[in-house]
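Thread title: Can someone regenerate the structure for this chain?

I was given the following input by a collaborator and told the matching structure tokens would be attached. They weren't. Posting the sequence so someone can regenerate them.
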Amino acid sequence: MDRKDVSSHEIEEKGATKKTRDGVVLVPQPSDDPRDPLVSSAIAGLMAGPILLAPLAHVVGISSCVFWSLIAMAMFGIWSAEMTSSDDYDAFVISRLFGGLVGSVPQILGNGIIVNIFFLHERGRAFAIYSTFFTIGKST
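Best answer:
Regenerated them for you:
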């Protein structure tokens, strides 16, 4: 049996179906292709989001952009989770793209909120806490 590390899951390949060590079938099935559209669409969204949505913060404000992007990110996460049948693959990829678009906004604009709220001598601790929680939140 070949074992590979895919998205923090140790999987076993048995024929065409990939499963965890505990026998849970991975859905969607991970691909060995580096141009996997599940990963590519989210990364494309994360790259394009700041370019498209960060200028909006100058019009409506940073807090509004962060708030509404978090709401949208939750909605796209729910949409993505509901795409479970084989006919929903295209919609799943699109939901990942839009989730990436709005998901990058809090990461980009959060730094601006810290700069606006804290004095210069307080920003080091604030950035350390922000970065730690942001990293922990993405890894769970």
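The longest strand covers residues 9-14.
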